[in-house]
């Protein structure tokens, strides 16, 4: 997996001397391409501070934040702004829209900042609005939209420049449950179908559980979730093996072959995790001979059945 955000020894202190408050304390964190991550914690835990630093909306007191290998803490403001605009999209709890501008004008704003030509801006904004199902609202004023429609405009604005990473701060916080579910589906569709890395800050435990990983912040430190779960590839291999064994009659010759194959695959997965080979993982001549004989018998039986059908 490619690391898109790499954080090392991150510290954020507000105030000075006697009034100093350490909001984040020596954070180490990696976020991977295509991953969905929830940052959760109580109010005042430091989760919003962490998101603002990851999204380059604020600078840390010390430590480093690398975006695709580029150390953002060493960039001047102009280059930092360019990196942020080219790499990130933002969806906030508050919509931050100009109510007197049309929907498409609000969506075009990041493209205008990026100095993209007006015709290209309009085409890109229209496509983004189509993605969130608002093609028919392009010419509407922002203040004439419902809360759910405004949040969809914000998502369109967030994805219009094809960001690699999408940050969402309490994206369903101001929405009713039905609209919230629709917005949630939109965000995870972008993650699963488009491969956009999704970072969500939320109090909603149900929303957090939908993510690949939950990073829990307590008193400015990561208590759980600093590292991703076991490799999905290993998990899917074990699942496929279990499925294969479960769907074959255990008493049949093919079932015996399936069980032997499953056992070997599971040992291989276990070996790859530990990096060691136990005695039980070493090839056993008797097992090998038995498996080979079973395979030959199965093939022979299949040929006989085919011959009988042809003769009939």
Layout of strands and helices, then pairs:
Elements: E1 3-14, E2 21-32, E3 36-40, H1 47-54, E4 62-67, E5 70-71, H2 77-87, E6 88-91, H3 103-113, H4 118-131, H5 147-159, E7 165-169, H6 177-194, E8 197-201, H7 205-209, E9 213-218, E10 221-224, H8 232-246, H9 253-274, H10 285-311
Parallel strand pairs: 3-8, 3-9, 6-7, 7-8
Antiparallel strand pairs: 1-2, 1-4, 4-5, 9-10
Task: Give an account of the 3D structure.
- With 312 residues, the chain is α/β, with parallel strands linked by helices.
- It has 2 domains: 222 residues, P-loop containing nucleotide triphosphate hydrolases (Rossmann fold, 3-Layer(aba) Sandwich); 69 residues.
- Helix content is 46%, strand content 20%.
- The strands form 2 sheets. It has a 6-stranded mixed sheet with strand order 6-7-8-3-9-10, sandwiched between helices. Strands 2-1-4-5 form a 4-stranded antiparallel sheet, covered by helices on one side.
- Helix 3 packs across helix 4, helix 5 packs parallel to helix 6 and helix 9 packs antiparallel against helix 10.
- The protein is globular and about 50 Å long.
- It starts with a strand and ends with a helix.
């Amino acid at each position: 997996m490619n690391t898109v955000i790499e954080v090392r020894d991150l510290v954020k202190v507000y105030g000075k001397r006697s009034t100093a408050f350490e909001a984040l304390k020596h954070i180490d964190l990696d976020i991977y391409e295509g991953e969905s991550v929830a940052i959760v914690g109580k109010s005042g835990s430091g989760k919003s501070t962490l998101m603002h630093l990851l999204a380059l909306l604020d600078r840390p007191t010390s430590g480093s934040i690398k975006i695709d290998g580029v150390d953002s803490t060493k960039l001047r403001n102009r280059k930092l702004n360019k990196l942020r605009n080219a790499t990130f999209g933002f969806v906030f709890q508050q919509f931050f829209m100009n109510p007197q501008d049309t929907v498409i004008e609000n969506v075009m704003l990041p493209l205008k900042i990026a100095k993209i030509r007006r015709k290209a801006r309009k085409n890109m904004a229209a496509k983004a609005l189509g993605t969130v199902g608002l093609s028919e609202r392009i010419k509407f004023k922002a203040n004439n939209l419902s809360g759910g429609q405004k949040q969809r405009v914000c998502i369109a604005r967030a994805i219009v420049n094809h960001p690699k990473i999408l940050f969402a701060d309490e994206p369903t916080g101001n929405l009713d449950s039905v609209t919230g579910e629709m917005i949630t589906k939109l965000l995870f569709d972008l993650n699963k179908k488009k491969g956009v890395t999704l970072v969500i800050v939320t109090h909603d435990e149900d929303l957090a559980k939908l993510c690949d990983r939950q990073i829990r912040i307590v008193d400015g430190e990561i208590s759980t979730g600093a590292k991703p779960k076991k490799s999905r590839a290993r998990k899917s291999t074990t699942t496929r093996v279990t499925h294969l064994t479960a769907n074959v009659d255990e008493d049949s010759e093919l079932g015996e072959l399936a069980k032997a194959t499953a056992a070997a695959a599971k040992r291989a997965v276990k070996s790859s995790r530990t990096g060691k080979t136990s005695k039980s993982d070493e090839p056993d001549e008797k097992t090998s001979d038995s498996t080979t004989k079973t395979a030959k018998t199965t093939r022979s039986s299949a040929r006989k059945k085919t011959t009988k059908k042809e003769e009939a």
